[in-house]
Inverse folding.
C-alpha cells in the first residue's frame, strides 16, 4: 500500500470572504489566517478545505493525501511521467510534493488515521415489505427539532483531466490506488486498496485539469436532503439533487459554489474493504452520473478553470 486516504484539497480563489461564507454555510468551521482559510469538519482537528485568497480566478492548487512508503513513491514517479518537486512557497516542505503528467499537484504526507466516526444514536432505518424495523415511533421529527447539518468528513474529490485513463494509470501505478469503476474514458473512480469508500479520487474528462467538487459525508439520506436544501437557499446558485448515483450507490445533493464548481453532501456509499476481491465495472454513459434524480444542470461537468470559460456561463453540452 502507498496512499491510504484523502486529507484535504486546497483551492486558490479571488475572494476569501466569499469562500469562508460558502463553506461555513455548508457546515464547516473556519479558521482564517491572513489570506488563507482552513475549513474543517467539527468532528476533526484538521482542515478538509484550504482556501488561498487573492487569485485572479478559482483554480485547484493541490490535493493532500495520507500515504506511506514515500521514498518508494518518489522513486517511481519519474518513470511514470510525473515530477517530484519542491514544496510551493508558503506550504510545508514535509512529505512528498508531486505533479502528475497533466500538471495536477499532490501533497503526500504521513499522517495518523482519523478516528472512527461515532454511530448515530438513532440510525437511519426503513420499514419495507416484510421487514418492519421501526415500530411505535416516527421517523421524522418537527423541523425545528433538527440542528443544522454538519459534514462528518471529506470523503472524495472529483477533478478534471484531459486524459481520464492516463490519470487513473498514474495514481494506480505511482500511488498504489485501485480503479473502482469507470464509464468509458469519460469518468473514472479510484480507491485505496484497503478499507476504502468506493472512490477517493475521481476523474472527469475535460480540456485541462481543474476542480469539480469535494464530497462530504453526512449521517443519512435525510441529512443529504436537509443540508442540500439549506445550503442552496443560502448560496442561491445552481444545484443538482436529491438523487442517487449508480456508480458508488451514494445518495447525493450538489450545490454550486461561487466559482462554478460544486459541494456534495452524500450518504450510503459502497465500501471496498479489500481491493483484491473487487472487480471494476465499465459502465455505459447512461449510468455515468445517476440512477435517478432531477435533470442534470447544463454546466454540471464544465471546467470553469479553463481559459476563456468564466463563471457564470449560459449553457454547455453534457459532459463536454
Amino acid at each position: 500500500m502507498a496512499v491510504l486516504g484523502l486529507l484535504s484539497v486546497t483551492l486558490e480563489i479571488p475572494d476569501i470572504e466569499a469562500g469562508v461564507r460558502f463553506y461555513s454555510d455548508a457546515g464547516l468551521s473556519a479558521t482564517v489566517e491572513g489570506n488563507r482559510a482552513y475549513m474543517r469538519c467539527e468532528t476533526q482537528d484538521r482542515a478538509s478545505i484550504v482556501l488561498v485568497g487573492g487569485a485572479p480566478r478559482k483554480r485547484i492548487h493541490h490535493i493532500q493525501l495520507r500515504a506511506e512508503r514515500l521514498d518508494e513513491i518518489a522513486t517511481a514517479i519519474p518513470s511514470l511521467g510525473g515530477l517530484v518537486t519542491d514544496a510551493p512557497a508558503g506550504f510545508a516542505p514535509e512529505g512528498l510534493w508531486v505533479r502528475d503528467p497533466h500538471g495536477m499537484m499532490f501533497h503526500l504526507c504521513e499522517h495518523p488515521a482519523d478516528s472512527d466516526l461515532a454511530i448515530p444514536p438513532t440510525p437511519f432505518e426503513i420499514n419495507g415489505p416484510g421487514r418492519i424495523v421501526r415500530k411505535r415511533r416516527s421517523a421524522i421529527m418537527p423541523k425545528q427539532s433538527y440542528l443544522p447539518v454538519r459534514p462528518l468528513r471529506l470523503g472524495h474529490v472529483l477533478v478534471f483531466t484531459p486524459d481520464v485513463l492516463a490519470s487513473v494509470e498514474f495514481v494506480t501505478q505511482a500511488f498504489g490506488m485501485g480503479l473502482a469503476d469507470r464509464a468509458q474514458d469519460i469518468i473514472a473512480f479510484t480507491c485505496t486498496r484497503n478499507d476504502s469508500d468506493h472512490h477517493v479520487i475521481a476523474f472527469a474528462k475535460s480540456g485541462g485539469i481543474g476542480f469539480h467538487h469535494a464530497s462530504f459525508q453526512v449521517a443519512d439520506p435525510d441529512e443529504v436532503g436537509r443540508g442540500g436544501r439549506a445550503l442552496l437557499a443560502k448560496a442561491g446558485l445552481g444545484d443538482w439533487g436529491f438523487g442517487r448515483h449508480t456508480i458508488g450507490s451514494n445518495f447525493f445533493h450538489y450545490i454550486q459554489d461561487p466559482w462554478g464548481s460544486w459541494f456534495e453532501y452524500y450518504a450510503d456509499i459502497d465500501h471496498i474493504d479489500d481491493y483484491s476481491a473487487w472487480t471494476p465495472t465499465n459502465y455505459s454513459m447512461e449510468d455515468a452520473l445517476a440512477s435517478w434524480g432531477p435533470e442534470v444542470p447544463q454546466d454540471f461537468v464544465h471546467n470553469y478553470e479553463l481559459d476563456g470559460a468564466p463563471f457564470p456561463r449560459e449553457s454547455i453540452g453534457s459532459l463536454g
